[in-house]
Known about the structure:
Largest sheet: 4 strands, antiparallel
Amino acid sequence: xxxxxxxxxxxxxxxxxxxxxxxxxxxxxxxxxxxxxxxxxxxxxxxxxxxxxxxxxxxxxxxxxxxxxxxxxxxxxxxxxxxxxxxxxxxxxxxxxxxxxx
Length: 102
């Protein structure tokens, strides 16, 4: 919930109206498969790496405390997963999360 909620909130907040969410299983044949989650928007494509630190905000005009991506990063690391940033098909930021099977 922390991962999806924060990523969706940011995608809606910083996009221009379109958000795409995709998800699937990692190693689906395992009894407890992992998960991949992709969230992208149609906003401006920016490098999100600097915003992984607590309190760093991309836009002071929008509501928030600069904690969302830091929380996502910490939760992903706690589960042994990885986080990837890029530009999505909609033209804005795409965040891909991969969590391994447990």
